[in-house]
Design goal:
The complex is a heterodimer of chains A (about 150) and B (about 150).
Chain A: H1 12-28, H2 32-35, H3 41-60, H4 67-102, H5 106-139, H6 142-149
Chain B: H1 3-19, H2 31-51, H3 58-88, H4 95-125, H5 128-135
Helix pairs in contact in B: 1-2, 1-5, 2-3, 3-4, 3-5
The chains are: A mainly alpha (about 150), B mainly alpha (about 150).
Chain lengths: ~150, ~150
């Protein structure tokens, strides 16, 4: 996460520009391959957290930006965050079930395996959905539009 | 608008949002309120990360408590999601296995919920809400209190 040092002498608008610039860079700094690799939960987790911070920044400083471009960008950031969240939620549940399986009794393991099989299918679908969301983000030039907003 | 003034307003709104989920979120059966409270904790934390310097030392404390809340409520939520999944699990799993796993998940969920209640009691006892409110309030002549 990029460190942002705001100062009391700044105006709300100046702070808005500084924060938006940094938070956008944090989201788009993540390598797609890592994010879309289901065996590496960390990539999607970090990008998701960055997307949430970006969303929060857009909401906190909303009055400082032109209304229409902000509204459109915020809606796209929300869609991206939702796609990241869908994948991340499956990752978390899989991890939790795997830890429960380790010290589970034999009869429980069957139920855990059935849940895991469902979750792995869902994880795959969520990953496909995330790949589309990332592509859409590129096609819509979201990064560039956010940079323009931050100027 | 000067940043300190805007920051105080935003922190006040987000703080009230978080504390507004009590008492609803303390009801063990009200999973929706608890989930919304987690989102409110996260929102307050993100605001304080950026603007907390304006309200002084109470911001660091509030940020740490919001992070703890987010973690413990998140764990309760993870068990809620798995319990709901288990309830929907088809008959292909043995009933005994499903029942045993269900008991384990409920046990862990209850333990994490108890942790949440203990954390919230600690937050209330510390007077954090009142101190946050005081740090975000304008002085009687309309000027902003100096914490910077």
């Amino acid at each position: 996460m990029t460190k942002i040092e705001l100062r009391a002498e700044q105006t709300y608008g100046e702070a808005a520009e500084a924060v938006l610039g940094a938070r956008s860079s944090d989201v788009f700094a993540h390598e797609r391959e890592r994010v879309l690799d289901p065996t590496r939960a960390e990539g999607v987790h970090k990008m998701r957290v960055a997307s949430r911070r970006l969303r929060a920044a857009l909401e906190i400083f909303a009055p400082a930006f032109p209304h229409k471009p902000l509204r459109t960008a915020l809606a796209e950031v929300k869609l991206l965050a939702a796609a990241l969240g869908k994948r991340r939620d499956r990752d978390v549940q899989i991890e939790l079930l795997e830890s429960l399986r380790e010290d589970g009794r034999r009869s429980e393991r069957q139920a855990i395996d059935d849940l895991l099989a469902d979750l792995r299918r869902e994880q795959e679908l969520a990953n496909e959905h995330l790949a589309s969301a990332l592509e859409h983000t590129d096609d819509a030039r979201l990064e560039k539009r956010l940079r323009r907003l931050a100027r | 608008m000067p940043l300190p003034e805007a920051a105080r307003r935003i922190v006040a709104v987000r703080s009230n949002e978080l504390f507004g989920f009590v008492p609803a979120a303390l009801d063990e059966r009200n999973a929706a309120a608890l989930h919304d409270m987690r989102i409110a904790a996260k929102r307050l934390r993100y605001v304080l990360e950026l603007l907390g310097f304006v309200i002084g030392p109470v911001a660091d404390e509030a940020q740490a408590q919001a992070r703890e809340l987010q973690t413990v409520i998140g764990e309760v939520h993870d068990y809620d999601v798995l319990i709901a999944r288990l309830d929907r699990l088809s008959a292909k799993s043995s009933k005994r296995g499903v029942r045993r796993l269900g008991l384990r998940l409920h046990g862990r969920r209850d333990a994490r919920f108890a942790d949440f209640l203990a954390l919230w009691a600690k937050i209330e006892d510390s007077g954090l809400r009142e101190r946050l409110l005081s740090a975000t309030t304008l002085s009687p002549n309309g000027s902003i209190r100096a914490h910077n």
